[in-house]
Amino acid sequence: MNLLFANDRAGDYPESYYAATATLLPPFPRLVGEARADVCVVGGGFTGLSTALHLAKAGVDVVMLEAHRVGFGASGRNGGQVGSGLRIDQDEVERLYGRDDALKYWQIGEDAKALVRDLADDWRPGIAHVDWSAKGATETREYADFLRGEPYSYDQVAPLSGEEARALIPGSTFHGGLIDRGAGHIHPLKFALKLAQLAQDAGVRIFENSLVHDIRGIVRTGQGRVKAEHTVLALNGYHERLHPALSARVMPINNFIVATEPLDDPASVLAEDVAVADSKFVVNYWRLSEDNRLLFGGGESYGDRFPKDIQALVRKPMLEIYPGLRDVRIDYAWGGTLAVTSSRLPDFAHIEPGLWSASGYSGHGVALATYAGKMMAGAITGDASRFDLMNNLRPLAFPGMGIARRPLLNLAMRWFALRDQLGF
């Protein structure tokens, strides 16, 4: 089953809070006939839009192909959190790659946040991490101290005591955590649409409702084709049917979000306008919208289909944290397909001459996917230093072969979800 069409109407945005509150762009045309370009970008999410924008700003002729609408996938559906660093903690990056390269990766993360902050119209600072266990809170405090010390000297992060965590999230039982005021949160679909508008203004030819089914030599859609010197695959969770080299390392999973009705007393949910993520393996994440709704993400699935009752799936972890919201109405509930890797580090690849890819952001993609586009554009136009550094992170392939790979991931994820439920 093609994940692009398994859960969504062709050429339409999901019925999400984001789609309901963004000013959508007029549809771009479908590709019909032949087009020529220096670069063909396949995929209209953060990675593809940013790649196209930065190439066009460098004077490169770009065609972008999107199967549905720009920002249709995870880019327009996610929690909107713009975190620091990579997906794994920085001390673990040091252990794996050494301090010198770890510092370079940290700077990439800082530059990625800065790029989003500069481009977004609605940047709101602050992300808190909160821990369910005393042991986890102690480790998080030590990690905050690690970042605040040499050589990172990152003074935007501070530990949260249990009392401070429970004051930030009234009525909760968290044991502590940290707050990162250099991170932030945005309306992700508005951001994707702005990138699309900037790309078009810079000269990118954008085509929607143009599903790519072949990239061998010429990029082909149902009614057209593109001849280009370079092709960029910006597919993330929707790559499986297009290139086998990506499928081994990047696995799609589904995640879900609800938006409540506007809350009469939003401060009873969050004492500050910051985003939050907790310490569970299947992460819960939440924040307030501009109109005082709770946007709460939680729950995952690993097959092709979304569950029939997304609202019930997400309401369960929401009420674990906020039992007082039991009678609050849910106005929106939606799902999205993202992509994970075995290491939770992104997969950057120069697959063959003229064929490029970046994907597998593992839930940390708002900043990294946007900056990936800038790095990919740099590599194509002659400066591959940062792209090559990210390519060194290439994760190992998932175990299993072919159709067995997704069931094995499903079993592994369910085991970690069970550990969450048992309190490990």
Main attributes?
single chain, 424 residues, alpha/beta, FAD/NAD(P)-binding domain, nine-stranded mixed sheet, eight-stranded mixed sheet, globular, disordered C terminus
Order of helices and strands: HHEHEEHEHEHEHEEEEHEEEEHEEEHHH
Strand content: 15-25%
Structural classification: alpha/beta
Number of separate helices: 12
Can you tell me the residue ranges where pLDDT is under 50 for at least 5 consecutive residues? Answer: 418-422
**CATH class call of the domain at 3-78 and 188-247 and 342-402:** Alpha Beta
Q: Find the count of extended strands (DSSP E, 2+ residues).
A: 17
The third-level CATH topology of the domain at 3-78 and 188-247 and 342-402 is: FAD/NAD(P)-binding domain
Radius of gyration over C-alpha positions, nearest whole angstrom: 21 Å
**Could you tell me how far the N terminus lies from the C terminus, measured between alpha carbons in angstroms?**
35 Å
What is the share of helical residues?
25-40%
CATH superfamily of the domain at 3-78 and 188-247 and 342-402: FAD/NAD(P)-binding domain
Q: Give the biggest sheet.
A: 9 strands, mixed
Q: Return the average pLDDT rounded to an integer.
A: 93
